[in-house]
Amino acid sequence: MDRRWLGAVMLAMALLAVVVVSVIDDRIVGGRPVAEPLVPAPRTGDCVIGFLDQATSYGSPLYLPSPAVRACDGPRQGEVVFVVPDYVASVVAPDRDFRQPTLAESCRDQAGTYLGLDPVPEPHAGAPSTVPNGMWSATAGFGSALIGPGPRQAAAGQAWGACIVYPIDLAGDPAGALAGPVAGVLHLTTPDTARFGVCREQVGGAAVGCTRPHRAELFGFTTVTPDVEPSQLESSCRDLVTTATDMPDPTAAGRLRITVTVRSHNGSASDDPLGTVAQCAIELTDPVHSLTSSLWALGSTALPVG
What are phi and psi of 262, to 5 degrees? Predict the structure, then answer.
């Protein structure tokens, strides 16, 4: 056979195969498009996965940030503390004869309690929410914010608001992912416990992350007036440190010093008992070494010194 004819026959067969395959594959698939399932309202303990750069403790009825939230057991940017079903209704000022904390204030108070701080005393008629004179209020470093439903959730009628808690850096900004759940973390030994401590280079010194070398850690504060005896403050400060650290001896056999520092509201040291604030802290007595972690929930574990 002439080679030209053979080539023409082979080309025709190849084109026929292309046509046949095209006809066979040109199928119409029946069915209907299905929308992605609507994400339900979060629950206490759920993980905040999205970025928190826009999160704020001063949300308005018109807008709340909406980072991704889901149930999880692993890393998270923050964690849900509580949820209110109707955010707008919750921020309407109630008709009461004393000041009601706003939802943002309640969020911060409950976030601290969620981490393991003692609850803030409830206000009584005619008075704001305060810590009783001379009674320490334990402190921790954390951020709290209100979040809400995303556009699809809101369009479907979801109107919830959720309080979240998250770790912060020295500037008060969100400070990266947590390793796991943080409910009661201040009384547990976890990789995240130290991230919520409040540490200082030294008593009265600059703030420093508790996982970095430091010589002091703050555990509480209170207001003081002339009727508060210094011995009362010192004794109750020791009790606070003992409870927070769970150490049998909060001085670690003299390696730590429990200190009470009284300062005016502008931060300077002050002997004026009117309008002053006292801070309860521990300080390492060793002038050479530094603490390398928070002492929250330390218990009988060796002092973290390096």
Answer: -105, 125
Q: How far is C-alpha 249 from the chain's CA centre?
A: 30
Judge if 242 and 261 occupy the same domain: yes
- In this prediction, residue 121 carries a pLDDT of 53
**Residue 115 pLDDT grade (very low, low, confident, very high; cuts 50, 70, 90):** very high
CA distance 120 to 129: 8
Which residue shows structure tokens 């080679």?
3
Query: Is the domain of 58 the same as that of 81?
Result: yes
- Rg of the chain over Cα atoms, rounded to whole angstroms, equals 30
Element (DSSP H or E) covering residue 144: strand 143-147
* Residue 51 CA from chain centroid, whole number: 13
Q: Are 192 and 202 in contact (CB under 8 A)?
A: no
The residue count of the chain comes to 306
Amino acid making up residue 183? A
Burial group, residue 153, by CB count within 10 angstroms (0-12, 13-18, 19+): middle
The answer to whether residues 113 and 243 belong to one domain is no
Instruction: Report pLDDT digits (tens) over 11-50.
Output: 444 443 444 333 344 566 556 766 678 889 999 999 999 7
Q: How many domains does the chain have?
A: 2
Q: Give the integer Cα–Cα distance in Å for 201 and 212.
A: 9
Check residue 27 and give its pLDDT. 60
What pLDDT does 87 receive? 84
Nearest by Cα to 241 from 202, 283, 292, 285: 283
Residue 240 is given by DSSP the state H
Q: Are 223 and 162 in a shared domain?
A: no
